[in-house]
């Protein structure tokens, strides 16, 4: 589950702006001082302009230029309304618009709105004959709200910068940890390669030499013990070669350059004489999930060779929208065929695969089918 993103102070302020502007408009529409008869016609015009400014604000929610125009109209209308109806809510409406402009807009744009609003207020005061104390108080309120909005904007920007810096620091720490983990995995891969791979190579060479000695024509041919010894040496050589391939695969996984899953399965199937079918649009799983799928196919093929030697085996890899499904199925064992490897192993292979699958969020199913064959199925969410 992805972490919840907390809203920044600036986003909180921006989300509250429409409510504040709407509250100022409702106050202007319902104020009793503007509902009395005999008020100047200019007050009606100002209220109409406030409504128009609010409509433009709502319409231009994604257009910065339209927002500035709407706030300018709202602020100027509020200032003029405060001069022609001194007891009305005009000052509050204009101050609200200026605070919003300073909070969410660039300083030069909000300063232009402030200048136009104060100029309109002074002109309306001169025309209406409003006392200087009234328009000076209104202009001072406008200026104070504009300053408060600017301070809030600066605070929000600093808070966002601090959050970005913290996020960058966290990413840097995560990258450092990841680099350290990669370095450790590379060291482990190098140790595995230098120790296990070299040992298996030497073992394979010695087994090949032993197989050659046992094939010497001077030895009596057809003896039962000699035939068994030759079979054991050949089997041990094959297991050594498979161990080398598995070691190489583990080293590649540790170095995070694991081969594509389809390519690895094709090579594995060729080694065991199995058929491979890939359906859907190939989507390469994560290195961990790919390794689990490969190990599952490997264990299933080994079990088929142990318990159903000579039976047909098919590997099917299905790529779906949100899951990959690997199915390995072998036909029923033929009657009378010897199974010399049936009792080998610890019997915990499928249990270990199920545990591997659970680590990467997958599910492993295994069991006998109706015709007596065996099926292993792995599902991993992509």
UniProtKB/TrEMBL annotation:
Record EC number: 2.7.13.3
Keyword Transmembrane included in the entry's annotation? yes
Q: Which reaction does it catalyse?
A: ATP + protein L-histidine = ADP + protein N-phospho-L-histidine
Pfam families per record: HisKA_3
Listed GO molecular functions? ATP binding; phosphorelay sensor kinase activity; protein dimerization activity
Q: Which domain of life is it from?
A: Bacteria
Regions that span the bilayer: 42-60, 80-102, 109-127, 133-151
Cellular component terms per the entry's GO annotation: membrane
Q: InterPro entries attached here?
A: HATPase_C_sf, Sensor_HK_TwoCompSys, Sig_transdc_His_kin_sub3_dim/P
Which UniProt keywords are listed? ATP-binding, Kinase, Membrane, Nucleotide-binding, Phosphoprotein, Transferase, Transmembrane, Transmembrane helix, Two-component regulatory system
| Signal transduction histidine kinase subgroup 3 dimerisation and phosphoacceptor domain: residues covered | 184-257
Q: What is this protein called?
A: histidine kinase
Native organism is Actinoallomurus iriomotensis
